[in-house]
Design goal:
By secondary structure, the protein is α/β, with parallel strands linked by helices. Helix content is 40%, strand content 15%. The chain has helices at 41-52, 88-96, 105-118, 138-141, 148-153, 162-176, 229-237, 242-251, 254-259, 265-273, 277-301, 311-316, 318-324, 337-342, 366-382; strands spanning 8-13, 21-26, 31-35, 69-73, 84-85, 124-128, 185-190, 194-200, 203-207, 306-310, 348-349, 358-361. The strands form three sheets. The chain has a six-stranded mixed sheet, with helices on both faces. A three-stranded antiparallel sheet has the order 1-2-3, covered by helices on one side. A three-stranded mixed sheet has the order 4-6-5, sandwiched between helices. Helix 1 crosses helix 3 and helix 10 (265-273) packs across helix 11 (277-301). The longest helix is centred in the C-terminal third of the chain and has 25 residues, at 277-301. It is globular, with a radius of gyration of 22 Å. It binds adenosine-5'-diphosphate. The site of adenosine-5'-diphosphate has 13 residues, from helix 10 and helix 12.
Length: 383
C-alpha cells in the first residue's frame, strides 16, 4: 500500500436476487463480468477471492499476498468512534447495533465471517460510516423527543458517510495548507445518498443524516426532512403498513418522487431541458434544500475555510454546485463559473481569488480511506 496503487477493483451486485453478477477491473484496465446466481455473501467473497487470484484475470498471485482485509461497516452506534481491529468482542458490538441498522449490519457481518472462514489468519479491520460523527455534541445529536427514548432505544442522530466526509476533509486541509485540526469546513457528499457535514477544527459537529440515512437533504429516492406528522396522516388516509411507508420515504421519494422520472440527476436535467416542469421542480427543490443546509452550517460554524463537493453529483454536476452557492457573496462565497465548468469531474478549487471561503471539488475515495486505516491499525497491532 506504500504507493496507494490500485491492483484491482470490483463489486458483486444483487446478492440473493435475480441477475446477480461480479464485475472486476484490473489496474491495466482489463474488465470481466461474471454472471450467475450469487445467493449469499459468503459465496460472493469466495468468488471475489477466486477472481483476485485467477491466473487470467487476477491481480494477485495467491491469497498469501493479502496482509489484511478492511470492511466498511455502516453502523457503529455509540460503540465506535474510530476504525478498529476486528475481534470477537468487536463482532459482538456490531451485532448489538443490528437493531438500529437492520438492513446494513447483517450483510457487513456476513462479509466479516466469510473472510474469517476463508482467510483465517488474516487480520480484519472495521471502518464505520458513523464513527467520524461521534464527535457531535449532544445539542446536535439529541432529538427534541422525550429524553427517555434516547436512554431506552438509543434514538439520537448518528450521521453517515463518515468515511467520505473525513477523507475529503483531510484532502481539503492539504489544499488549505494547514492542519485539519485548524480547519472549519462544510463537506457536501452528494451521491445517491446525500449528506452535508459541519466540521469545526477538524471534527464533525453536525451532519444532515440522523438516526437513519433518511434525514436531511433531498436524495435520489429518499425524502430527507419532512414534517413527521405526514407519516401518521398517510398511514391513516392510505391505510399504509410500516413497510409501505418505509418504501415510500426511502425508495419512492426524493428526485424520483417529485420528478416521476428518475433518481438520476442526469435524466432529470434531460427532461427539465425539454420543458418538463416536474423535473425542473425536482432539481430546484434539491438545490434549495442543499443551500439551506449549507447556510445553516455557515451560521453554526461562523468562520468557514472551505466548502467541499464530492460523490456522483458533487463531483460531476456543475449546475448543482453553482446554483447551491449562488448569491452568497455576502457570506464570502464566490464561485468562479468558468473554473467550475473547466474543472468539472476533476479535483480543484472553483472559487474566485476574492472568495473568502474556498470552494473545492474533491473526488471521494472511501476505499483508499478504508485501506489506509486498515494498514495503520494492523501495523500498530503487530508492533
Ligand atoms: P452512491 O451514493 O450510490 O455511491 P454515486 O456517488 O455514484 O452514488 O452518485 C450517484 C449519482 O451521481 C447518480 O444518481 C447521478 O445522479 C450522479 N452522477 C453520476 N455521474 C454523473 C455525471 N457524470 N454527471 C452528473 N451526475 C452524475
Amino acid at each position: 500500500l506504500e504507493t496507494n496503487e490500485i491492483l484491482g477493483s470490483g463489486i458483486v451486485e444483487k446478492i440473493g436476487m435475480k441477475g446477480s453478477c461480479l464485475k472486476h477491473m484490473r489496474a491495466d484496465g482489463q474488465k470481466i463480468l461474471l454472471e450467475g446466481e450469487v445467493l449469499e455473501h459468503q459465496t460472493a467473497i469466495e468468488y471475489i477471492l477466486g477472481v483476485l487470484t485467477s491466473k487470467r484475470h487476477g491481480a494477485l498471485k495467491s491469497l498469501e499476498e493479502i496482509d489484511a482485509v478492511g470492511h466498511r461497516v455502516v453502523h457503529g452506534g455509540e460503540k465506535f468512534n474510530k476504525s478498529v481491529l476486528i475481534t470477537d468482542e468487536v463482532i459482538r458490538k456490531i451485532e448489538e447495533c443490528i437493531d438500529i441498522a437492520p438492513l446494513h449490519n447483517p450483510p457487513n457481518l456476513s462479509g466479516i465471517h466469510a473472510i474469517e472462514e476463508l482467510l483465517p489468519s488474516v487480520p480484519q479491520v472495521a471502518v464505520f460510516d458513523t464513527a467520524f460523527h461521534q464527535t457531535m455534541p449532544k445539542v446536535s445529536y439529541i432529538y427534541p423527543l422525550p429524553y427517555n427514548l434516547y436512554n431506552k432505544y438509543k434514538i439520537r442522530r448518528y450521521g453517515f458517510h463518515g468515511t467520505s466526509h473525513r477523507y475529503v476533509a483531510e484532502q481539503a486541509a492539504v489544499k488549505l495548507g494547514k492542519p485539519l485540526s485548524r480547519c472549519n469546513l462544510i463537506t457536501c457528499h452528494l451521491g445517491n445518498g446525500c449528506s452535508v457535514t459541519a466540521i469545526q477544527n477538524g471534527i464533525s459537529i453536525d451532519t444532515s443524516m440522523g438516526f437513519t440515512p433518511l434525514e436531511g437533504l433531498m436524495m435520489g429516492t429518499r425524502s430527507g426532512d419532512i414534517d413527521p406528522y405526514i407519516v401518521l396522516y398517510l398511514m391513516e388516509k392510505e391505510d399504509l403498513a410500516i413497510d409501505e411507508v418505509n418504501s415510500l420515504l426511502n425508495k419512492q421519494s426524493g428526485l424520483l418522487g417529485v420528478s416521476g422520472i428518475s433518481n438520476d440527476i442526469r435524466l432529470i436535467w434531460d427532461e427539465a431541458n425539454k420543458g418538463n416542469d416536474q423535473a425542473k421542480l425536482a432539481s430546484e427543490i434539491f438545490i434549495y434544500r442543499l443551500k439551506k443546509y449549507i447556510g445553516s452550517y455557515l451560521a453554526v460554524l461562523g468562520r468557514v475555510d472551505a466548502i467541499v463537493f464530492t460523490a456522483g453529483i458533487g463531483e460531476n454536476d456543475e449546475i448543482i454546485r453553482e446554483k447551491s452557492l449562488a448569491d452568497m457573496e455576502n457570506f464570502g462565497i464566490i464561485v468562479d463559473k468558468n473554473k467550475n465548468t473547466e474543472l468539472n469531474r476533476q479535483e480543484g478549487e472553483i472559487s474566485t481569488p476574492e472568495s473568502k471561503v474556498k470552494v473545492y471539488i474533491i473526488p471521494t475515495n472511501e476505499e483508499l480511506a478504508i485501506a489506509r486505516d486498515t494498514k495503520t491499525i494492523v501495523e500498530n497491532h503487530r508492533t
